[in-house]
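Marked as duplicate of an earlier ticket. Keeping the data here for the record.
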Amino acid sequence: MKILITGKNGQLAKAFLSSLKKETSYEVKAYDKKELDITDTNNLESICSEFKPNIIINTAAFTKVDLAEDPSSKNFHVNHVAISNLALFCMKEKIFLIHFSTDYVHDGLKETAWLESDDTSPINKYGEAKLLGENAIVKHSNNFIIFRISWVFSENSDNFLTKIMKLANENQSINVVSDQMGKPTSAYGIAKAVTKILPSLNGPMGIYNFSEFPEASWADFAEKIVYKASKIGLIKNEISINRISSKKFPTRAVRPKNSVLSTKKFQSKFGINPTSWENSLDLILNKMSNNR
């Protein structure tokens, strides 16, 4: 089976390459934006006519949430228009499409974990574009699965973990929001789970939440990062986390207060239980320590 991965330089693509290299039954090719721009249909057709993939794992996305508020950004073009074209292409060529969406399709007002069946009502432009991308896939494809994921981290790319590590080594204290809740999820956890279910993917599979556990605030997550990284020498100085409210940390794009995703549907369908994000954090920090 042939698998094509878009967004080669992103943290999720790198995690998939790590996971899939252990599987000898798959031929995998990954392309960065310069090699395969998903906004260019001709480019997509050219690459696929040569490689002839059975599955496309689309990790390419515009993920700069605050910049997405700018009407001149590529947010809607990449996260909606390009995804619509990708879905149409995959349907025409009978290619199974694996796509990743976000917890930001919700408004964050629900007090319990979000289900896939809950109404969507994004409160920022990034969430709006990602939801339109979801809808386009559902409308135009008959061979797909969409995963809503949250608070993704790894040692690669620009994410919460790498930002906190950088700030912790440059400051004595960091202000971190404590009233936004979610489930931190490692890129490797996502890739490992999806790799396991590849043989069972067929037809219009629908939308599934995937996240690791337990739920935490951004401040909780930051405290764990600092504590664990300090223990293994990745952070040298004393650092404190100042827990603040969202009102004291305004951002251009409004963030949902509750981004906790329920994974019951995924667990019931595929029989796979997500792992603890603290265990994933340990593995990633140890990898960072070994690579110094």
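See parent ticket for discussion. The CA atoms of residues 38 and 82 lie 6 Å apart.
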